[in-house]
Amino acid sequence: MTALALAVLLAGCAVGPDYVRPAMDLPQAYKEDGPWKVAAPSQIDSNQHWWEAYGDPILNDLIVQANAANQNIRQSEAQYRQAQATAQLARASLWPTIGAAAGPSRAQTNTSGTPRLADTYSVGLNASWEADIWGGIRRSVEAGDAGVQASAASLAAARLSIQATLAQDYLQLRVTDLQKDLYRRTVDAYTRSLELTTHQYDAGTALRSDVAQAETQLRSAQAQLIDLDATRNQLEHAIAILVGRAPAAFTLPALPAAAGDAGDKAIDDNAQRLQSSLPQIPTGLPSDLLERRPDIANAERLAAAANANIGVARAAYFPTLTLSASGGYSSVAFAQLFDTPSRVWSLGAALAATIFDGGARSARSDQAVATYDAAVAQYKQTVLGGLQEVEDNLSSLRVLDQESAVQAQAVKAAQLAERLAMSQYQAGTLNYLSVVTTQATSLTNQRSAVTLLGRQLVASVALIKATGGGWHAGQPEPQAQPLATR
User: Fold this and answer.
1) What is residue 270's three-state secondary structure?
2) Are 107 and 120 in contact (CB under 8 A)?
3) Which of 151-155, 267-271, 278-282, 378-382 has the lowest mean pLDDT?
4) HSE of 310 in the Cβ direction (CA atoms, 13 Å)?
5) CA distances from 360 to 14, 137, 306, 316 (A)
6) What does the alpha-carbon distance between residue 303 and residue 57 come to, in Å, rounded to a whole number?
7) Using CA of residue 82, residue 88, residue 91, residue 93, what is the dihedral sign?
8) pLDDT tens for each residue of 286-312
9) What's the rounded Cα separation, in Å, for the pair 255 and 156?
10) N or C: less crowded end of the chain, CB within 10 Å?
11) Predicted TM-score (pTM) of this structure
């Protein structure tokens, strides 16, 4: 009873430092800020799935598939369940261990100089409990709980990474569709130019070199159109893997494109639809990243777990108190096993301490402190990396927005120059080399405009990811369940 009272008295004591989140000197605002969007976009907030702001039902469906079937997400879910089991294992040490035993034994004894061989039958219960006087077990529980929270944040980070990668691949695939439509239109235009030049050559009003230039330009455009198939196929294969399917069993249809005179308008409409899908992304304050980025939350919780492990290591310097009790029946005759005289019981307390271990405890304590210092450094580096990602993508979106506006003007000017050159060539006032030059310039500028659109879309997804994608550290932990194998 004395030992039990002592254990209760010291129950509130826990060695090791109490955890405090490592301090960070964060700026009051981002360096890159301002009206970097000119479209009329959708708004992203924490109450919606961020990818829905792009207004593409196919993208929405693909991300739902990835959430359910992506193998990296499944691996993170399994690791989360593993962390839960580890925390429960640590918490189980707070409770006594109760066991039962029953069985016969046969032994020879010699208590009076005469050997005696006898059977013994016994049945009983036993219990033992290690009093957590110095808080070592409680620190283990604290570390386990922090590990669960870190694993939950890691799961959220893995899910966000897969979602962002899928969205970027999908949007790049759509931009590739725009480029293919551009080259199809260009091939049609170059085919007409070759026919015109051939007719003029047959009529004696054009040189053979003009025909060769027209054919060279046409074949070059056809080759670049074919090359885009490789890019699109690779993006389609990557999307298939992200949604947990084999590439051979997955196909994404291309964007619809009209033919003939309506072709130009269809391409422009598709480009405008992608341009207008750029969402408005609230960046908040730099300090918001500490709660909104799951990778930062994961690093912070790992630091908390490392801090708790310092207490676990330091508790090893102090003696352990183990209380034990047992009771049951023991008899040399099985028929008398449960008689009153056969009752046996015992109570005990053991205080144990290590006197010399060659510096092992000191080494474990130093190791725990060093692990904590490394976790703190990793946490701070993760925060700094998050700030850099936000600044990078804010800068990219601002610069790309300005560049796109100028590039759009360049496209209009190049298209006008192309039309004027063709008209002058048909009128016989301009040689065909000048037509080829203006056509190549027009194509280059149009492809640059589409490429810039793709970079804007990719950067917008990257900014969403950099700001946490609507995730918040205060949200409930995921209810991970074992997933059936396929």
Assistant:
1) helix
2) yes
3) 267-271
4) 18
5) 21, 19, 19, 10
6) 40
7) negative
8) 888 898 899 999 999 999 999 999 999
9) 32
10) C
11) 0.86
